[in-house]
């Protein structure tokens, strides 16, 4: 025997071990007595924890960690006593050492909180007081514990004598009955039994033995360790006896056997307990098959009945084991697990023979299991891990598929019942509602209630089954009362229909389903899990049948048919929830937009059309059934969110544009905004919870919902254009900024979305101005300055901050990228145009920049000692500014603006000139440091035009070795010749049959029908075979003659142009802007480098530009606008006209004639950006927005095609918070100058003119395809924006991707050209 006192004595010893770590000084006899009393009290308080421990070691661990596990730890008298002694004994030591530490800290000898703790701990443990305290404590605790153990021994002997007397008084039996319901067998002592005793025990439990003998044996069984029983050779026979005894009419037998089983389940390993489990499962299976159980479903179930109660206890024990077994069976052979699974499935599949009269009404074991585990938690746990799921589903498929069939049948039966009930309240679902809301306990279930419980169990089981591929393989199933088999789609349609056919309660409809057993709540959980899955699981959900079922209530409301749905608002909210989850995935969005087979039939509109129509009706309050509902705003918001998920994407927006949803949302916002302005001012003393206050809160919430919906239009270029048309741009930006300040959107996905929105807005003038006026730019600049210069004041510096290794510190990287996203040329022009540099004589350290001009003044153009001395981190901050300048100057229009307004080149040259060593004789040597290297790189970049093979940019890193920086520095122009690549040689003209055919077609005086198409085909053939032959005079002639031919055709002329004759005298009176003059210088310098221009070319280019400006001015309108870009002439340089000038080898008359003819073609709108500046050919609203068709048309379709053709690249852009439209607009605006070599620029212009304007879009997609691996790499490095703007397109050749472009043309041309032709009437 192992008496309980032994555990107590061991526990006391454990306390003694723990107390040796305590600290006390001297103790008297009174202290010893007091300690003994307090220690006994502590042990009594934790007795249950100690006696429940399986071993002495575990008991010791429990005591050692008592402070962590016992919330009353610090309230024990023993603990309080110890704490006071520690304070009295070593408290003075700690105080003295703390004072010494403070003094040392003032002298900067040591610092830091962690250092203080370590220092005090070490000094205290080394002190004399501590050692004496520990010695005294050890001695006194040994005395106290020894005294306690002696007392425990006396108590044990006394108890032993009492036990002996009790045994003598009993006439029979060896052990007392400690298996009562009021005590647990785990708290009793074990009797270790020999094999002979186990053999005798087995014989006495034989059913043929007298009742008294069996009862006595059962009593012995309760005291025996389960491990001894299960491991003995007598266990097989004993198990048979126990299985038979479970059916004994005497309840005491089954009660004690169940207690033994329960103890076995809790304390034995799985390889032993599985035999006990299978024994119990087999007993129940035989019981249900024997016919003894004659209850029927229709008769209901009274759980207070003794026999039913006993049966439920057995099933409950079975179910408890089912839930616990999966945590351990993976450590044992699969055969063991398979035995448990098969015995369970065999039990649950029990049913009467088909010809049995009670067969349909048979109350089988699955009903009892459902009563105890209504949500089928056991099945969820069994299928969670692949190890067990494989076995479960294999057995279901091969032997027990009837279990699945029955579950499916139950779901269909309930659905038919709900349909038959119609709008009436069902007693079935009302059962659980009333039960959970009542204080009275329910002891009986009706037949309908039992059927409903089994339905919930079946629903949960099937919902879990269908999310696995192997589970889906069990379908289709064939039901007896259905002709067609039931597929997975049928099941999902059924689940969906249950949302609106099953009864529900309006009051709790939009809460978190307070009734956890409501059908719609369970179905929503299942469908939500499906929506969150990927692969085959999602594929099952993404079918037209399921979507049609979801949209059934919506279709009914739209068509005006009778709607027999309980709580319509809650149903619509649930439907919207599932649809929103479906729309969140790419496949789900495609299904809603295009249908299952991506065929948009006019006869049957896709789900997207239905949803947007319904949303518009909701916004216009055109649905009478929903009018006046309190929950209507919630339903509106839910369906707006679905639409938002769609129009956030280019393809979704393209589908929704005809419906004018943005106008409906804007109209609803304007109405709500008026209401919110009319809300009365709160009066002091008024009830804050009044209806007026609540109404105003709801109004403000609804207004924010609408603003958020409008804001999300700006996720795409076309959507941003539509947002401009609503007039809500400034309000949306203010809302976004206020949300960011409140930290409302903490979700990473939402944060990336906000970055994309800011990037899109910064690409348009009105968007940039809105960001400025909202305070967004000021907040961005302020945050940047705090990171660069201020640091964090709230952190105590315990060690010096490490010097940054990277040119831009990691803490500033996010701000750096945000500035790059923001500072596009349209934004720079609006924010900096005609703004002078502050150049103050003195800058205070507390003066924080608040605008972009301040960043340029304080970080980039450091042309005074005052600016330099105002920086705490001069080098780091200036390098940040120079890196930013380098990226900005990659956009040539921005470069021209900064150079003409702030003379950036001269500032950098002056700084280089000052950064030299002093020499007694001759010029000094340039000092090579981080700043001079950065300046050298920028100077070369901004003064050389050329593609990847036409200019050489110095590196910004030092090499190893004796010459760390081989690149020559300079402080005046011209640049060293080493930065100029070799002059490209002109390709030798060789005779070529294909080229001859092309030239012959070109010079043919007659142009029959189909000539244009033949010309294009022949051009593509030459491009693919010998692209180098399409250059120089040949290229000039090709495009010139082709444009001349098209301009003579009415069908090909898209714009009407008046007559204009260039006049040298008139244009001389005009003068070019400083930006244009600098652009002319750069163009001529580049043309001379390419050997395309002569010395007097500058006058010729000025002639072309001035005449173009005069010619286009005839087709411009006057616009009253605050935007800088709409005040005067085109904001930027005409890079396309300059390119044509170079192609025509500087022939000004030929260039001007070509441009005049070219201006009537559709392609001129997308290649020649100044062509549509303030143009009368565009709607007045489009002109007022300052947004070019290249952005809202070409760039929009680039983003749409990118998602379809290069999804990885599209995802990379989104993850970077950058947009393809921004970089493409930059490429197109400057005709790929500095990104491609001249020959490839010519080919780009040629394919767009000869093959169609849509080739501009295919060209950009081809570039992204060429850069795919680099884009993914730089996305991971978090510098995608910098890479795309700074790096030229190395290795890209237009001819290499012409086949790919032709494939894109075959797919997308009809849609793209149709959209491009609508720019004249683009007023949606």
From TrEMBL:
Pfam family of the protein (one): BROMI
Domain BROMI middle region stretches: 196-870
Record-annotated BROMI C-terminal Rab TBC-like domain positions: 888-1319
One cellular component term from this protein's GO annotations in UniProt: cytoplasm
Keywords: Cell projection, Cilium, Cytoplasm, Developmental protein
Localization (cell): Cell projection, Cilium; Cytoplasm
SUPFAM superfamilies per record: Ypt/Rab-GAP domain of gyp1p
GO terms classed as biological process: non-motile cilium assembly
UniProt name for this protein: Protein broad-minded
